[in-house]
């Protein structure tokens, strides 16, 4: 087995905690030869875990990619708005790329990245890790094999989880679309991708509604303060108390480990006192929606209703797919799938494997597949290639455009043509 050599750009939660455990468990499959990370503590932690020397450490992606070609592929795990430039530079320098989702917060950059990867003959794979989980692969198999006939309609719910939403999208890195991406892209591009994959047809029309309904100053309780530590009179009863949430045992609450590096109690308290994670959830600079629905119509006649909500007790995805010969319902968290076939009138229960590893095993799955694709020279038509991912990204961008235009229907054919024409004219 050829050992694939990798470089990592961005050694945060995704670049280090999500993908490096696979490399550490299977050293014959992959070897990390360099890392680029501006944060000194993260860079040092990464180097120690992956046994890198000082000469293999870089403070920026520009510094790393200015060197003679170091390896086979690059993992790019930076923030949303920092994907385009290192991806283009890596592709032009001859690297294959595994890129964290979303591709970009700019639709024209997404189109351009896919075009350049195709022109360079490089594998650009997007981290739509859900496709690699046993649950979603079984759902795809059921629909692909025709067990419920032709797909007619889908109802897909994304339960974000009230504490996850507050952590990531009220206080965290994805709280403001000027700093990252709209919610439909930052969080729900997984769902757009799964819907497109299962329907297996191009989307023709999109409309969307949603807003930031709760987490703003107008809903701040009487007696609340700018920070949870400023003498807030309702802190002890608030479900979003930073003191109670982030000072929990990090083994029980993995989000608590993400607010400080390293996540000692002293460092976490300092982060609560001084950083964004100690802010009152009603007094931050957040602007992304806390609930959104998207209506979609596809070329094959299928219709889809997608709903994302931040006010749920758990983090889960629940789906119901209705076909001409049957119906299938699934609950990702439990791994349970219920299949009902009209002809026999029978119901069967399929229990898929669940996993405590990242994204129900999806993080491991995409690393395994990416390395396999590189060893086998499979650079096009891969499961989560940029070509496969681009369409679902455009669906998300169209949904956000519709939402901002009070639910106006977006014609996807015209939307695609407008983007492609702009990109081509700018590339000349």
TrEMBL record:
Similarity comment: Belongs to the Gfo/Idh/MocA family.
Phylogenetic classification of the source organism: Bacteria, Bacillati, Bacillota, Bacilli, Bacillales
Stretches of the chain forming a coiled coil according to its record: none
GO MF, one example: nucleotide binding
Record-annotated Gfo/Idh/MocA-like oxidoreductase C-terminal domain positions: 145-406
Protein origin, superkingdom: Bacteria
Matching Pfam families: GFO_IDH_MocA (PF01408), GFO_IDH_MocA_C (PF02894)
Transmembrane segments: none
The Gfo/Idh/MocA-like oxidoreductase N-terminal domain, residue ranges: 4-126
Name used for this protein in its record: Putative dehydrogenase
InterPro entries: Gfo/Idh/MocA-like_OxRdtase_C, Gfo/Idh/MocA-like_OxRdtase_N, Gfo/Idh/MocA_Oxidoreductases, NAD(P)-bd_dom_sf
